[in-house]
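During the no-cost extension, the postdoctoral fellow (Dr. R.K.) reprocessed legacy sequence entries with the updated structure-token encoder. One reprocessed record is reproduced below for audit purposes.
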Amino acid sequence: MEKLEQTLQGLETSSALPGNGGTAKENAGINPLEERVARLETAFSVKMDSMIERIGKIEKQIAQLAAKPDVTPDATEPKPGAAVSAPEKKVVKKEKKESIFHTVQKGETLFSISKKYNTNVEALRKLNNLSNDAAIFPGNNILVR
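Re-encoded structure tokens follow.
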């Protein structure tokens, strides 16, 4: 077994050197693949780290919700002889803004669309989860508000 491993290692080192058994074409084909694999590994580990961080935050929120004391019906009942007062009600008005979509026409850019709706390009990118180099095409529906 050791002899096989040594032979394999010797072949790998000899084929890695130009002119020693491995052709330049073979070496040129392997290096880009190794680089792509390394980039994929890096991207994967970054995504996994991000997911682990997000899961941690969610677990903290769940723990905080679980730690809050529940209000039991017995706690809200007035004691005999105590003055009864009406509970305070908070009125919260929620303005429900309607979402406005724009269908991209030929020749339009995020900049031209942002001017039509009196907003900026970054706001459009954020609303539509677009990266800085993302392209839009005629027929796309994008959220503007």
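The first strand starts at residue 101 and ends at 103. Residues 24-67 form the longest helix (44 residues). The remaining legacy entries will be reprocessed before the final report is submitted.
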